[in-house]
Design brief:
The complex is a heterotrimer of chains A (277), B (321) and C (461). With 321 residues, chain B is mainly α. Chain B has helices at residues 2-9, 13-54, 73-80, 82-113, 120-132, 135-145, 152-160, 168-171, 173-198, 202-210, 215-243, 247-251, 272-281, 286-314. Chain B folds into 2 domains: 3-54; 71-314, MetI-like fold. A 5-stranded mixed beta sheet of chain C has the order 2-1-3-13-6. Chain C has a 5-stranded mixed beta sheet with strand order 9-10-11-8-12. In chain C, helix 9 (227-236) packs across helix 10, helix 12 (347-359) runs parallel beside helix 13 and helix 15 runs antiparallel to helix 16. Chain C is globular, with a radius of gyration of 28 Å. Classes of the chains: A mainly alpha (277), B mainly alpha (321), C alpha+beta (461).
Chain lengths: 277, 321, 461
Amino acid sequence: MRRVLRRRAVGRYALVVSVAAIFSLPVAWLLITSLKKQSEYAASPFVLFPAIPQWVNYQLAITMADFPKYGTNSLVLSSAYTILVVITSALVGFGFARHRGPGRDRLFLFVIATMMLPGLVLFVPQFVMFARLDLTNSYWPWVLWGLSASPYHIFLFRQFFAGFPRELEDAAEVDGAGPLRVFLQIFVPNAGPAIAASAIFAFLWVWGDYLYPILLLSDQNTTLAVKLAKALVDPRGNPLQTITMAGTVLYVLPLVIVFFAAQRYIVRGVVTTGLKG
Amino acid sequence: MSAAASTIAGPSARAVAWRRREVRRAFTFYAFLSPWLLGFALLTAVPLAVALLMSLTNYDGFNLDRASFVGLDNYARALMDPDAHHALQRTVILMAIVVPIGVAVQLGLALLLDQRLRFSGLFRTIFYLPHIIPVVGAAWVWKLFTDPNGGLLNALIGVFRPDTYVRWLVEYPTAVLAVLVIWAAAGGGMVIFLAGLQGIPAEYREAAMIDGANPWQVTRFITLPLLSPVIFFQLVVGVIATLQILQQPILLTPGITGISPGTVPQRDNYVFVGHAYTAIFVNHNFGYGAALLWILFALVLALTLVLFRTSRRWVFYGVEQ
Amino acid sequence: MSADTKPTLTAPRGIELRTTRRRLLAGAGAIAAAAAVVPLAIACQQQPATKKSGPAKVVVMTDSHEFGEDDRKALQDTAKVEIEIVEADLTRLYAMWAAGNPPDIFRVQAAGVPQYISRRMLKDLQQYFASSKLLRPDDLAPANNFYKSDGKTVGAGDLYGMVKDWSPDFTLYAYKKAFADAGVAVPSDAQPLTYDELAALAKRVNKKQGGKRTYWGFVHSNNDQWIDRTAMNMLAEKNQTLYSADFSKLVIAANPEALRVVRYLFDLAKDDIQQNPLDPSPNWMGADFNEGQIAILQYGFWYSAMAESDKTKGNVVFLPAPTWAGVRRDPTMTATGWVISSQTKDPDAAWAVFEQYMGGKPAQDRAKSGWGVPGLKSLYPLMPQETPFQKQVQKVLQAELKQSEFTLAFNPYIGEETFSTSWKKHLEPALKGSITFDKFVTNIEADVNAAIADGKRIAGN
């Protein structure tokens, strides 16, 4: 039996390694390209490795896109939105999952429907609204969006919470706990994976989005995403790809670190949603 | 007689208590929903209405005061537009390829990495990397990767079959697009499924194994059904997202270096939102572009409703829906 | 599975509940604190709202690499106004116009000016130019004609903006190595070729080995983005244009000369001399030339600042613009510049910024960089002339500048890329053979004429 298990484990391991290798080829390519000179970049015949690694590309990326300043902007905006949207979406998703009220199903479908709203066509009306409220060139739109919960995250939490057995609330209700207490004391502690996943996605969305910052922010308080898209160019406006790749690597690095730390939380060893055994 | 007397006299105490509880339950429900309800009413409803209104005009993007009401003309035009038909077709085909395969890949990865292997955290991070790379960067990398003249893909294939010169982006543009989308989304879905797998108590699986089930049977009869709400989530989200794809086809167009309005993707990658984008930003026909997007919305909604309808058969929730 | 290996959910009374209540309060406190800190963090990030009556504020929408933080600060001091930069983006421009608060200054290209004028979005600047010391009307380079309008046509009349820099855009760059490989002599830089000669030459230097591309023969029009401008310049030699006299229709099939020009350009793609959908490159043509993959490239003077890469150094020759019918014409087809919006609240402040950018130190810096011909003739001598290549370029450029007085007649009813997107859309099936050349032409005409009809309705004609 143990030999079979070990063989299975080894086989599985081999599978993981090979899939990972294939998966990360393009990423490896990104890394290698970031160290090339512009002339080696699209050289033909094909150049696999740079002759001399151009670490200067990273330095240039940092200065040209002013990483410290715009990175901080991105960090503040992403964190603010993430904290708010996870809290509110968990509340709303929980409401949909574990509570009943008139029109619940139709409302839920409506929430999902708002995910399908064509973003492109909402840009101009949204801008006009924020402009009338004098909220452009500020981070307020994101704060407001965070406070309003997001359909995607609502859906996520709802599905997650809906999977818990009914007995959970029944037991708590017997103890006389109110709805908010049930939410905070029973469901939230067991929602670590969903919270972690939702937080990662929310953070990633703001960190990577340049459509809304370009629309709503000024050059001073815009995000790193915008700068990366626009700043790493030669005086004529043509992108300097190797430096852009270096910038992309740096831009992605914080997310990688955050994810690596958070993913353990998503796959916790012992989590229970069952009742006392 | 006393029973009749009590009914004539009015609702009983139990009925009143029941009503009160129902009201309280509804109140609680709406209280939980309040952030979204308020947010929607204040932030989304008005732009939504305006966007809908714009589709009924010939607004060009610049002069709001010069726009005039044209009723359903834009919608009628969209129905007759051969480019719109073509775009819709290509978009639906893309969705039909990407969503099933994509979700399967995400699920597979999650199942693979749910274990405690050595360095599993590292592997999960590797698989998640494509998801965090910005769209522009990811598309660029794939463009280079598949370049016939200097790309790694042809070089690798050339190891087995020398002189391989496949022009991937010319002959198989949709395939490259599909692979790019699946690759970039795989890590994200993996994370969702990993989170979902945590909700399945280990005892269920262990009990089944003790009863003699092999891992495949455990997966099929225990894990997957219990994971079905999350699978459903990924399918719906995948459908919605894929039908609205805009940037990737543009970025995979040869000869360009960024997103510019005038980029025309390969004919096979001419997606629906791209068509609307061209109408708005190249032809300055905002009203028409808006109408196209609202049509897309209606289609996505219809498709999602179908998904919800069929979900009753195979999605298993812990709480009755 | 014993009960004490995992936390139970039924909370026993007494101690447990108390701790959980404390934890609950702590948790709620943390959340409240976070929710309070967040807006504070936001506020710290914001610029203080300057609603005070201080210096005037000018909002400029442009590319931040053309007008960055340092330039902004310098100009704020010189012009004595407060400047805010907004990254150039068409969505944002639309949105700002819709909100009734467009940027005071925004960046445009010549092809967009007629439509902006027809929509009454630009401010007439003639008075400002007339009284300006830095921007004298007689000192303006010919490319500025694209910003002149008399209300009906573009090319003459009042000034509505100015070019920030420009190039005669039809010049050629030849890669000597490609010619050497084909055993063909490089053309002289003293005489222009005809387009027919150019095509023949390109066919000889065009090279493919197996399926692999070694050299593209003749690549032009910025990967077809400016195909209509190239066509218009060729037609203008015979005093013709792509459109009917009142711009209400695109006319190709019914105009033999236009048809000939379009056929010429189409054949370049069909004969695989130009980068096309069936043999594309992942990069833009400028990058490919730098990689030594293009034998003849058509780009303006600005490209000379980057034409010599490691690979092509010493092997590039700058050649005069070719002719279609023997008439030399080499205007610019982009003419990027600035305009002031008709809705600006403080035109004087906007002009102050505009004037400095176009005639002050920023303009001199641009001239010295060699990335374009200055918008003011008096700044011409500042263009770089040190290396042998730069000298050769300047020699040819001087001759070309004499042919650059012309403008191209852009259609005021359609967007800048309406024609080219239609061209690109139908080119792929045409090259694959799914549609004939005649269908290709009629498809483009249909697309563009529909757009013209929409535009006319908006313009109110």
